[in-house]
Amino acid sequence: MTLRIGIAGISGRMGKLLAEEVAAAGAELAGGIGRLGDAAGLFAGSDVVIDFTNAAAAEAHATLAARHGKALILGSSGLSAAQEAAVERAARQVPVVYAANFAPGVNLLFALAERMAAALPPEQYDAEIVEMHHRQKVDAPSGTAIGLGRAVARGRSKTLEEVGMESGRDGHTGPRATGPIGFAALRGGQVVGEHTLLFAAGSEHIALTHRAFDRRVYATGAVRAAHWAVRQPPGLYDMKHVLGIG
Ligand SMILES: NC(=O)C1=CN([C@@H]2O[C@H](COP(=O)(O)OP(=O)(O)OC[C@H]3O[C@@H](n4cnc5c(N)ncnc54)[C@H](OP(=O)(O)O)[C@@H]3O)[C@@H](O)[C@H]2O)C=CC1
Ligand SMILES: O=C(O)C1=N[C@H](C(=O)O)C[C@H](O)C1
User: Fold this and answer.
1) Cβ(101) to ligand 2 under 6 A?
2) At which positions is NAD(+) bound (predicted)?
3) Domain identity same for 163 and 188
4) Whole-model pTM?
């Protein structure tokens, strides 16, 4: 049977591409809403909903997904801890794929970041994450940068909260602390998404960079996740589960 996919945020930069990718994948566009749309109606009429909106709307859509028993693909970034807790609650009842970035290359980068961090002692290698996005982006650091930070922390057998984040350095900051991960966010023009993870030691640097040239890469990944999610039991998944990379 043809999969019915609903889109929350259909008039946005991502939403327009998602509608095209739903059709390209042979699925049915069950409906699409913007800020003023009927969200409950969208969930009622869809097998799975893809959300690329904002943090507050994402939280509301997670609650609706659970209420309507529908799978959810969540791409929105900038969620607070409380908003992520609402997503986790929904995922006890329905499959939720919550991914900071739906590009395959970034998800490989997450896996590499964890392995590199495990191999490079924090006393010798400072981890720094630099990201750049278009001037319309409203949250910083990007969800992907935070995802990279979480991967580095995991590689060091800690959480990101335990390791600590150092962002917005300005003025007399004093020497860099050992351990925390540095974050820097650049905004300008129409940059689709660039992320660099740098491990800096006294005698060497290692840097990994991902550049997205076309945000269609995210839309293709999200539609792929939608087809995958409807076959899963309730749970919180991310793109590594969809792609089968660990
Ligand atoms: N995980 C990933 O791979 C990616 C994540 N993102 C994230 O996706 C989100 C959207 O990005 P982008 O498309 O560039 O942003 P846009 O601002 O272009 O689009 C967001 C859309 O969401 C709609 N919206 C706002 N509130 C609601 C609501 N309550 N219900 C339904 N729709 C709503 C807006 O509609 P209206 O026009 O009515 O205001 C708008 O069209 C961001 O958080 C971004 O960081 C982006 C790219 C990739
Ligand atoms: O807002 C964007 O554009 C993007 N947001 C995501 C993020 O916050 O990481 C993913 C991608 O970098 C594009």
Assistant:
1) yes
2) 9-14, 75-77, 99-102
3) yes
4) 0.97
